[in-house]
Amino acid sequence: MHKPIPKRISEGSIKELLDFSFSDRRIICLDMIDSTNNYAKKLIEQGCDGWTVIVAEGQSNGRGRLGRTWVSPKGKGLYMSVILGPVSGQNSCNLITLGASIAVANSIKKLIGESPKIKWPNDILLDGSKVCGILTEIVLNSKGQNYIVLGIGVNVHAKEQDFPDDIKNKATSIHKFMEEKGRRISDSSKLLLAVGILSEIDNLITEDCRLSDVNVAMDTYRKLSASLGGRVMFINKERECKGIALDIESDGALVIQCDDGEIRKLFSGEVSIRGIMGYVD
Ligand code: BTN
Would the pTM of this model clear 0.85, i.e. be above it? Predict the structure, then answer.
């Protein structure tokens, strides 16, 4: 007879379901914290090992990209930071972030049987609304070694009323997406997602912080992309730039054929896609 899957995330429950390298690493499970990325930074500065994982039930100061806030109510989402490193040589942080997006998208698909899309570079979408964001940061330790912190926030059990008004029409949760389809998610979803993401990261990213197979990963990323072929808008030197997203190159750059005739390559930043997350033009 199968043992029931635990509902709560704990070091024991994660390790019981993991059968690879993370299972002998530190997995720190916290109740409330300001931000798991802040906690990870402090650990790195104190000299912790790579492949350490921090998960919290809730965050009082969850941080998003571009200085935004990541609303992190207790029990409603997966708030996890994965420390990778030390980074050797010229490894690309951009590509690792794209790898993390694939890891999350694959794990969500495994959980609910439907594939999310990725809005370049690392927003994960269900039915065109954001279900997960990834904040990647590089932190230097006292020995001069660089570590990568992959901060992953997934809205899992959040209901409509858990989202602030200004993001209600752009954000979703796995619960909300499934409820709209008349389906339910299990109480173990956060745990299964955490285990799934760690397992995917272990497959996709090598110990020395490279994508295990760049070509395969980038092909997968392109297939999952919500951006490719779409009409997009981004800010270039304080001016709005519009065009069509042509390609994602093997260095992770988004190539855009702009309306002014120029072809531009973006390595980071924010790109709106027509018809997605409230952008209409
Ligand atoms: C985004 O803006 O899309 C990125 C959001 C990242 C949120 C996660 S939640 C876990 C980790 N800790 C943080 O403070 N932020 C990241």
Answer: yes
